[in-house]
Each structure stands twice: as structure tokens, then as C-alpha cells.
Amino acid sequence: MTLCHTDLVHAGREQLRELGVHALPVDLSTTYPLDGLESGTASLDRLVAGHGSADNPVYARLFNPTVDRWERAIAQVEGAEAAVAFSSGMAALTACLLAVSKRGKHIVAVRPVYGTSDHLLCSGLLGNEVSWVAADEVAAVIREDTALVMIETPANPTLQLVDIAAVVKQAGAVPVLVDSTFATPVLQQPLRHGASIVLHSATKFLGGHGDVIAGVIACSENLARDLRQVRVATGALLHPWAAYLLHRSLPTLKLRVERAQQVAGALAARLAADSRIAAVHYPGLPGQAGADILQRQMAGPGSLLAFEVHGGHAAAAQVLEALRLITPAVSLGSVDTLIQHPAGLTHRVVEADNRERFGIGGGLLRLSAGLEDPDLLWNDLDQALASVKAAARAA
Fold it and tell me: Residue 140: CA atoms inside 13 Å, Cβ hemisphere, count?
């Protein structure tokens, strides 16, 4: 199913007419007056047990109506029974790993993934064991104590595509988590391909304006209850103002994603034709691996691309320093174009051998296209790339 603008405009707004408002309300209360001790105790018990609502919120760490409204919206657009929001994408992933640990401590994961996700899985902080495999090797490492299979597609930062349905088939009864941050629900809905869990760093496209940090998981109601229990116990709640900003951004998500995708496609084509570029990684380019997956699984190639410059780390650093319109910064999915160096920043916490093995070398730059004029963005890239040759001649 392809999301339409109407779906995104109206998601999670069913209560507004009943509330007698048109704009989304924000509830900033940290605590709530109780009608009586017995009703308050009953509400507390219900929320601590992971239920999605109660007669009284009691305390904002347990429930907040503004957050709940946005969670309902995300569940709708992902085609999920429920969604649970957290203070960051990493808080969401941590909660998920804790919630599934009752199944076992073994995790199967496919590289590459976001650098801090990789680090968390390998760190042992949560007591888990991880088996890293290629996407077609998942079945071979499934064990009785395997609690989760995790993939990220498109993958950060190389834009590698993973066939969700094929991984789900290999995983059997083991739930499959898909980090779908790069795609958003506009371009990919993993639950419709058999995945059990969808993870978003909502900081990125779902927020879209570089002013909110958040994470969200879309899943079954059964898992959502476990996730809410973790959130109650650990305090990894999403602030209601962040939920308001995220919900306010949702109606423009499709417009932003599709415009940024157009910009990315134009830049990728120019980079691919430029002799100063060693390689371009963008699913929408002819001849890229995973074209069949793209056609079957996604509504478009997205607005992230990566490219490798000749000259390795030094040349990449020179490009970043020479840019004037494009912002050198981590993160992605904003209305303005961002560029960063994965080996030195987002994936710095991954062991060097694993970075190199999975194509995250010193010359790789990851670009998140924004909404600007692609010609102006190209002019900025062109002059930055020219500065590398100029620096080489001067040396």
C-alpha cells in the first residue's frame, strides 16, 4: 500500500473534533489529579503492566495524551496494531532488545547498520550475544535462544538494500526488526512484507526539521505492552512537546520525502558521471545492486546517497571543509541538505576492520538531500570537489 497525503494529514487526529479543537493540543502536565485512591491505583496498575491507556494518566512517565496521539498516528501509517515512542532512536532500540530478551539473549544482525546500533549490539551492555551474517545466511545461525533478527534497509551508510520477505522466511518464528529510518512509511512498510517490528529514528524524516530527537517502534499490541513496561521502568519517555512537533510534521512527510528524493536522484546522476568520484551508492541509479528489491519492496529509492572520492580520508575532509551551501553535519532527513563522513563520525564506534569490510572507507561521504534547488547544490559540490584537485596541485 502506498500512503497518500490524506492518510498522513488525518492520522491520529480522530479525537480533535470531540475535543473541540482544530490544531493539535499539547499536554505538558507531569502529574494528574486523581478522582480517588482506588481509581488511581487501578490506573497505575494498568499502565505499569504495559496497557496503552487507563482512566487516569497518573504520571507523565506512565502516559501522556500528546505522545499517545502521535503513537496512534504512526501505527496507522505503518499498518501496525500499536506504536511506542521513546526519547531517541537508540532508546527505542535498547527497549526493544530488553523487551525481547525473555525469548533469549541471541541476536542475529546484518551489517551495515547505524554505527551506534552496531556498537550497542557488540558492547555486551545488555547481556546479549550477536551473530553478524549476510542477508542470505540468517537461517544458518538461528538458534533456540535467538530472540531477534535485525536488519536495516536501506542500510546506513552504503544504501544497501535487504530483501525483508526473504529474511523473514529464513527467520521462521523469530521476530524480524527492520530499521526503516532511511525509507520512512512513505517509501517502505516492512510489516506488509512480514516483519514484526519497525524502528524509526524519528529525529530524521519524521521530525524533518532538525529540531527534535525521538524514536518510535511500530509492532503488535503484545510487544507494545512489553515495550511500555520497559519505558515505564527506565524513564525513556518521549517529551510531549517533541510528540507535538513530530505530529505536526507528519502531514508534510510525503511532500518532503518525494521532493528530497528528486533532488537526490539528480545529484546521484551527476556524481556518477563525474570522473572525480570513485563510486556512487544510490538505489535509484541504473546498474545498482538490489534493483529487484527496490521495485518489489519500496515506492522509491529515497533521498540518501553515498559517494566515494579519490584520495581517501584527506580528500573527503577537504570536500567537507570547502562546502558552503551544504551543511557538514551528522543526522539526515532534514529540509536542508546535510553531508557527513561515516568512518569519522556516525560509524566511528564500529571496529575499523568491520568498517572497511562493509565499504565504510576513508573516502566515503554520505549525503542527505534536502529541498533546495539541485543545481545550486551541485554547484556547491562541484566547487568543493574542485578544491581537492587544487589542493593536490598546490602540494
Answer: 8
Burial of residue 85 (number of CB atoms within 10 Å: 0-12, 13-18, 19+): buried
CA distances (Å), origin 101, targets 95, 107, 215? 10, 9, 20
What band does 3 get if pLDDT is binned at 50, 70 and 90? confident
- Asked whether 92 and 217 are in contact (CB, 8 A), the reply is yes
pLDDT in tens, 365-374: 999 999 999 9
Where in the chain are the domains? 5-252, 253-394
The band of 132, judged by pLDDT with boundaries at 50, 70 and 90, is very high
Query: Does the pLDDT at position 391 exceed 90?
Result: no
Q: Are strands 215-219 and 277-281 parallel, antiparallel or unpaired?
A: unpaired
Topology of domain 5-252 in CATH is Aspartate Aminotransferase; domain 2 (3.40.640)
How far is 237 from 62, CA to CA, in rounded Å? Answer: 8
Count Cα atoms within 13 angstroms, Cβ side, for 76: 19
Q: Which three cell numbers stand for residue 93?
A: 532500540
Give the list of residues 6+ apart from residue 5 with CB closer than 8 angstroms, or none.
Answer: 251, 254, 255
Q: Are 243 and 67 in contact (CB under 8 A)?
A: yes
Annotated catalytic sites, by residue? 61, 114, 179, 204
CA distance 340 to 317: 9
pLDDT of residue 340: 98
> Is the sign of the CA dihedral 241, 244, 246, 249 positive or negative?
negative
For 267, other C-beta atoms within 10 Å of its C-beta total 23
The answer to whether 201 touches 172, Cβ cutoff 8 Å, is no
Tell which residue, 325, 393, 302, 323, has the closest CA to residue 365. 323
Per DSSP, what are the bridge partners of residue 219?
82
Q: Indicate the CATH number for domain 253-394.
A: 3.90.1150.10
* pTM of the full structure: 0.96
Query: How many alpha carbons fall within 13 Å on the CB side of residue 209?
Result: 11
> What's 23's DSSP letter?
S
**Tens digit of pLDDT for each residue in 149-176?**
999 999 999 999 999 999 999 999 999 9
